[in-house]
């Protein structure tokens, strides 16, 4: 049962439900109205100029009618606002942060995700919740993961092409193409935009070593805030630069190691020891930054947060590049070949696919026409 009440002379609407209250302003409700005079019925895009609505707009009345709010505004506008749309304003489910002891094991099957919407939705929701998912049954061809990428969104092309090799080569143009171990890092912080998701497909992994590591950067940020708030504040404010350069490419960008959203919560982590280029800031700022970076480094490289795994041929990791840090142990080719294929998919197309599939699943469950 939802109770509706007005406050502040009608400029605020309050919904009381299950011992919780949510408050909305009259002006926000007016510009979100879905009636055909306010929004185009086909596109859902706004037809009125929201910036021209009266700043002192208020609600004359509000009542709950058949799972909707019947609203009457002071400018004469009337509309029925779907009640559930207000209650579900936070679209995405919460993320589940983890350390090594509580690390999840989200799994998906390539063929099922490729052919079944429910399986694909489950894979994408696991990716959003846990920051990674392990996919099995990927075809052994060099571009074997491409059909599933195409079902979600366009493959992100970079100066390395689309799906690229990750294996040891002579005259390597990047340290990923060597046998050395790689410290925990996020990919490509020198790009704008930074690639959202890493797809890493194993074709062969018989080399000695070469195990992959994952660490939840959001959990690291949470622990840093609890244990060393000064370091957390420093890493969310100071903006190091990052650069990649070769004979044909020169990429540069900047941003904090811990980027916060409008609520002050981590929304992206950056960490790339190989490509970071810290500007010559004031000495006291640099002293604080270097100490804070070390504290963060100790967290993301420590066993408390590090998940170890080794991909088998036909397996693939999909990794949230805004949240997780990944790395690998050094390997020796005496035991055999280590050959991975890697591609990127951006966040907007991935989130869009997940939300559309979720909406369709909810529509089918309710029995309403799609």
TrEMBL record:
<feature type="domain" description="TauD/TfdA-like">
    <location>
        <begin position="107"/>
        <end position="344"/>
    </location>
</feature>
<dbReference type="InterPro" id="IPR038492">
    <property type="entry name" value="GBBH-like_N_sf"/>
</dbReference>
<keyword id="KW-0479">Metal-binding</keyword>
<protein>
    <recommendedName>
        <fullName>trimethyllysine dioxygenase</fullName>
        <ecNumber>1.14.11.8</ecNumber>
    </recommendedName>
</protein>
<dbReference type="InterPro" id="IPR050411">
    <property type="entry name" value="AlphaKG_dependent_hydroxylases"/>
</dbReference>
<dbReference type="GO" id="GO:0046872">
    <property type="term" value="F:metal ion binding"/>
</dbReference>
<comment type="similarity">
    <text>Belongs to the gamma-BBH/TMLD family.</text>
</comment>
<dbReference type="GO" id="GO:0050353">
    <property type="term" value="F:trimethyllysine dioxygenase activity"/>
</dbReference>
<feature type="region of interest" description="Disordered">
    <location>
        <begin position="348"/>
        <end position="370"/>
    </location>
</feature>
<keyword id="KW-0408">Iron</keyword>
<dbReference type="InterPro" id="IPR010376">
    <property type="entry name" value="GBBH-like_N"/>
</dbReference>
<dbReference type="Pfam" id="PF06155">
    <property type="entry name" value="GBBH-like_N"/>
</dbReference>
<dbReference type="InterPro" id="IPR003819">
    <property type="entry name" value="TauD/TfdA-like"/>
</dbReference>
<keyword id="KW-0223">Dioxygenase</keyword>
<dbReference type="GO" id="GO:0045329">
    <property type="term" value="P:carnitine biosynthetic process"/>
</dbReference>
<dbReference type="Pfam" id="PF02668">
    <property type="entry name" value="TauD"/>
</dbReference>
<comment type="function">
    <text>Converts trimethyllysine (TML) into hydroxytrimethyllysine (HTML).</text>
</comment>
<feature type="domain" description="Gamma-butyrobetaine hydroxylase-like N-terminal">
    <location>
        <begin position="5"/>
        <end position="79"/>
    </location>
</feature>
<dbReference type="InterPro" id="IPR042098">
    <property type="entry name" value="TauD-like_sf"/>
</dbReference>
<keyword id="KW-0560">Oxidoreductase</keyword>
């Amino acid at each position: 049962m939802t109770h509706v009440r007005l406050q502040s002379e009608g400029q605020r609407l309050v919904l009381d439900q299950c011992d919780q209250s949510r408050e909305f302003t009259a002006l926000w409700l007016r510009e979100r109205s879905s009636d055909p005079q306010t929004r185009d019925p086909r596109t859902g895009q706004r037809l009125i100029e929201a910036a021209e609505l009266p700043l002192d707009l208020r609600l004359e009345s509000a009542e709950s009618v058949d799972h909707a709010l019947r609203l009457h505004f002071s400018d004469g506008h009337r509309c029925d606002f779907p009640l559930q749309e207000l209650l579900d304003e936070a679209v995405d489910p919460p993320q589940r942060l983890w350390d090594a002891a509580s690390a999840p094991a989200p799994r998906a099957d390539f063929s099922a995700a490729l052919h079944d919407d429910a399986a694909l939705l489950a894979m994408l929701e696991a990716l959003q919740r846990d920051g990674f998912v392990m996919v099995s049954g990927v075809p052994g061809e060099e571009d074997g993961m491409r059909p599933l990428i195409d079902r979600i969104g366009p493959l992100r092309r970079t100066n390395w092409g689309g799906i690229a090799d990750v294996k040891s080569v002579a005259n390597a143009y990047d340290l990923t193409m060597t046998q050395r171990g790689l410290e925990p890092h996020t990919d490509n912080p020198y790009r704008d935009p930074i690639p959202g998701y890493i797809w890493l497909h194993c074709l062969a992994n018989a080399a000695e070593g070469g195990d992959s590591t994952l660490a939840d950067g959001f959990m690291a940020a949470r622990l840093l805030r609890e244990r060393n708030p000064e370091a957390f504040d420093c890493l969310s404010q100071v903006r190091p630069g990052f650069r990649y350069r070769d004979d044909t490419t020169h990429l540069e960008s900047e941003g904090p190691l811990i980027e916060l959203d409008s609520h002050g919560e981590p929304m992206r982590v950056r960490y790339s020891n190989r490509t970071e280029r810290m500007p010559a800031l004031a000495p006291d700022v640099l002293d604080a930054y270097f100490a804070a970076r070390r504290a963060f480094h100790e967290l993301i490289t420590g066993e408390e947060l590090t998940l170890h795994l080794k991909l088998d041929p036909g397996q693939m990791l999909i990794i949230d590049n805004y949240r997780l840090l990944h790395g690998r142990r050094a390997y020796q080719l005496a035991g055999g070949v280590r050959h991975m294929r890697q591609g990127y998919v951006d966040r907007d197309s991935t989130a869009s696919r997940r939300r559309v599939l979720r909406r369709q699943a909810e529509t089918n469950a309710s029995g309403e026409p799609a």
